Automatic annotation (TrEMBL):
It holds the Pfam family Glyco_hydro_3_C. This is XYL2 arabinofuranosidase. InterPro entries: BXL, GH, Glyco_hydro_3_C, Glyco_hydro_3_C_sf, Glyco_hydro_3_N_sf. PANTHER family: FIBRONECTIN TYPE III-LIKE DOMAIN-CONTAINING PROTEIN (PTHR42721:SF42), SUGAR HYDROLASE-RELATED (PTHR42721).
Length: 225
């Protein structure tokens, strides 16, 4: 209603939201709740009781599963302490989730997985190659530094000679050093180019103008190739 002018009143907004499937309101900074108008919408027949029950059922089912209505002593989440954070069990689960969610778009001539790296030279370049600050998306929790593995740090655990060049220090990549990148990739057996956007370029309420790589990143890629 306020930002996109899709609706004109709180009552109309409540009706549109509930009928579209929304069952939880987040009205940060607003004095009044939109969903407080649901009873009036119900009385007017703009929302049916069946629809309202359909919206409430999964909401309260989730809250029950989280133990929100149980005494704290009965809630297993209340017993979780700081020792559970970054525990080996959770880190292994996170690693498994990352491996299973990777998407490989192309693997010509079986380039991956990398094998027989002993004595080989790897080059890792780009603004995302060794900058922990840009690896996390919007709303992401940032772990302790010792648990953050940048591409460069991860590759250095392999039995290979790893060279590195950022080329540009931040995702916007306004200042770019071609010589730095060309020097790092010269004579490398495998080159990994780490590019992207990050929260410096796009977040909630901060959209990109286009889908192109920011700044000189495309040029960096072409020079590496």
């Amino acid at each position: 209603m306020l930002g996109h002018h899709y609706t004109r009143t709180f009552l109309e907004t409540a009706v549109a939201s509930v009928n579209a499937g929304c069952n939880l309101e987040l009205s940060y900074g607003m004095k009044n709740n939109v969903f407080m108008h649901i009873p009036k919408a119900l009385a007017m027949g703009n929302i049916t009781l069946e629809t309202l029950r359909d919206r409430l059922r999964p909401l309260f089912y989730t809250r029950l599963r989280l133990g929100e209505f149980d005494p704290p002593a009965m809630n297993p989440y209340s017993a979780l302490g700081l020792s559970a954070v970054q525990s080996p069990e959770h880190r292994n689960l996170s690693l498994e989730a990352a491996i299973k969610s990777f998407v490989l778009l192309k693997n010509e001539q079986g380039t991956l997985p990398l094998r027989d790296l002993l004595g080989k030279r790897l080059a890792v370049v780009g603004p995302f190659a060794d900058n922990p600050q840009v690896l996390f998306g919007d709303y992401a929790p940032v772990p302790e530094p010792q648990y953050i593995y940048t591409p460069r740090r991860g590759l250095q655990v392999l039995a290979a000679n790893v060279s590195f060049a950022a080329g540009c220090r931040e995702p916007q990549c306004q200042r770019y050093s071609r010589a730095e990148v060309e020097d790092a990739v010269q004579g490398a057996d495998v080159v990994l180019v780490c590019l992207g956007t990050g929260i410096d370029v796009e977040t909630e309420a901060k959209d990109r103008r286009d889908l192109s790589l920011p700044g000189h990143q495309l040029e960096l890629l072409q020079d590496a190739v």
